[in-house]
Amino acid sequence: MPDPAGSTPASADPAHSPTPRPAGVQSELGVVRLLTAVSGGVSALVVLSAFTVVVQPNALPLPGWYRILLLAVFVFPVVVAILCPGCGLRALRRLSLAAVLAQLGALAVLLLLVVVPPGLGGIAVPPVAQLPWMLTTSGVVVVAAVVAWGARGGWIVLGVIGVSVQLLRILVHDDLPNAIVNDVQTMVAAMVACLLSTALVAAGAELDRAVAAAGAAASTLAAERARREARVKTEALVHDEILATLLFASHDDDALRGAVAVQAAGARQEIHDLAGTAERNGGAAALAPHPNGVAARPGSPAAADGVMPRAVAVNRAAGERIPVDAYLHQLRQIVAETDAGARLVIASRPARGAGRVSWPPAGIDVEAGHALAGAVRQALVNARRHAGPEALRSVTVTGADGALRIEVRDTGRGFDPVAVAPDRMGVATSILARVNGVPGGSAGVRSAPGRGTVVTLEWAEQPSGNPFEAPRPPHTELALGPVLENTPDGQAGRPLLLAMRWAVLAFLVAQAVMAFTAFERSSGSWTSLVALLGLAAATALVGWRDLRRPSRWRTAVVVALVVATPATIFLPSSRSSLDYWDAWYLYGCAFVLAALVLRGRRTAAIVGFVLMSAVTLAAVRVFGYGATEVAAAIVRPAVIMGVGLAADAALTRLRRRTRAQRSAELAARHDEAYQAASRAELTERARHLEGIVGPMLDRLASGEPLTPTEARECAVLEGLLRDHYRGGRLAREPLTRAVMAARRRGVDVMLLDDGPALDEPELAAVVEWMRGELEQAASGRFTGRILPEGRETRASVVLGDTSRSFATPLPR
């Protein structure tokens, strides 16, 4: 819409546009903190298991200082996990790097101790020895490497540790079946940890980028909205206060001089308040009497002739509310001052439903109340002017279901809304645009010739409680399981889904290696192969086409297979004991159950683990297997299950916090951009109005009689302001100066912009041509117009009965 208050507002200059602050890296930081906390918990379990469960009868003899060093290496991630809530992203990456270097250093030191002869500081390696179990675990250090260096760093560290451990096993002759099973299980766990941590960190970073993009979009929309509302507010001020003041002043009627002085003082104050509002959070103004306490009395010439009674905008805080009773009292005053003959009806309809209220329970939003009150005044003024002397006028205020509804009705002549000229500002600017621009506001006009007019104004609280509806970022979730059901079609991000599939493939290959190792070691017992089939079937049934929650029947079948797989222990075999390597499938079953936990079937997974453990313990009791190896075989699945449950709980909590942070970030960016743009726009528009009409309003407010030149200048200024509204692109130099000079000569000038987009050279040519035509007009009525699309020429001028068209035709 054309600018009604001056040439180029501040918002048109990109330099004045607010620069939104960048969004924080909350999502990626939350993921890194989560991974650090889980890694610390796993490291604590490793240390605890090394001292309580893991038995190594042929442990490699190590010096005491190295044992202390090894313990410190694995306690360090626990300390980092404790500190991580207060650490930023950079600090966590540095601490993770320290953890990686510490474990790699411990491996390097052990390698030196093994290869260096005892006489030179090395250790004597017995014929058969076992590596320290803690040093063979790699999941924690791989996750730390992903945090510190990214996916490539995680895979490099995994490879270095895998090669180093195997090299050490060769040097100390540690090739027992338990060692093979341990390394395979550890490698699988580390690969899964690397894949998932990489995908989660990437998802967190992507979410931060999405939030930043959405924040930028929210800032842009907020700035556009602020500029639009500032324009509407300014246009309403121009129409309701300034144009009427200048128009009546141009007549220089002694009977109206007092009312015009009051109106001019009020309009001058409104311009000041417009700029003052910009300095108060870009916000709102409350309804209050004019500071001087002067207003047009009911029935006074000012009221009768249409000089608007006023409710001046003063200091308002954004989000401030007016109690319903106080607002209704203000409406009574406005109706009485504007139209003493109008009937006011205030009613409330019974609320529908339990807990519903008739009037807005928190009161009326100040911005909405100000807009509604101004629209009521304008509707009453229009009815007085146009409905006819016999028309009945009424204002009905209704509260229903927490909303406010106002109807201004007259029984007068009516009109055809479609036929209203586009340059008429009363209905379009002071009623419709003013109310529709308020969050929760709506306005409409119903009328027909001979059937009266009904103006409907409504305001209701926004459902979200936030007057601004900022755009949502692209939906990216950080958790698995039920969280993914909230994504479109239950689809996770492609990197996460691919990572899960690769992890499943690696898991199945590792289970096959352990199954065939057990098959070979058990002299051809088929129980390990049966267990492999059950485990593979359970893994496949979890489903990996997407990451949605599996159905109940599929979950039940998976749990049944997981419970049946350990039951192979009851099958006939030649085993006399349940060794750690022979119970390899328990670890695989725990992985499947952990996958169910992360896919939203926590209860079923817990039940399955309990039943699996019960079956295993029952077999131990029936066959009398040794408790030590059984404990070692059970503890690792229990750790996997515990980590899965902890990760699920932590991811769920992270998801909720991330959503809250995203909402708060977007709301803050939206509000910040809105206020900045509103301040800039209102300040600039107030400055333009001050420059155009400020001195004249001061002159009118003095109440002194005007000279004929000053009266003509009032008409010139009134026309100039209208030109800015209806003249659009034509309201520019040098045509503006020519228009003012013509009006001073007595020419009645009207500028209309109804045409399509023109490039700058074309527009400049039209303006220059129209200026030349206007300078030749000595009197009469001059209409300059940019013609609508589809006409033969771009513009025309009409002076009296003579019409001329712009010489350059439109291209065909």
Structure explained in plain terms:
With 812 residues, the protein is α+β, with helices and mostly antiparallel strands. The chain has helices spanning 26-52, 64-83, 89-115, 133-136, 139-149, 151-172, 177-251, 257-278, 301-304, 324-338, 366-386, 426-436, 494-521, 527-542, 552-564, 584-598, 602-623, 627-701, 708-727, 735-744, 760-775; strands spanning 285-288, 312-315, 321-322, 343-348, 364-365, 393-400, 403-410, 441-447, 453-460, 748-753, 781-786, 795-799, 802-805. β8 and β9 form a beta hairpin. The radius of gyration is 40 Å and the shape is elongated. It is built from 21 helices and 13 strands. A 5-stranded mixed beta sheet has the order 4-6-7-9-8, with helices on one face. The protein has a 4-stranded mixed beta sheet with strand order 10-11-12-13. Mean pLDDT is 77; it is low at 1-23, 280-318 and 464-492.
List the defining traits of the structure above.
alpha+beta, 4-stranded mixed β-sheet, 812 residues, 21 helices, 5-stranded mixed β-sheet
How many distinct beta strands?
13
Alpha carbon gyration radius: 40 Å
Can you count the helices? 21
Main β sheet profile: 5 strands, mixed
State the helical fraction.
55-70%
Percent in strands:
5-15%
Identify the strand order in the major beta sheet. 4-6-7-9-8
User: What is the overall shape?
Assistant: elongated
Coarse structural class: alpha+beta
Oligomer: single chain
Low-confidence stretches: 1-23, 280-318, 464-492
pLDDT averaged over residues: 77
Please report the distance between the alpha carbons of the first and last residues: 28 Å
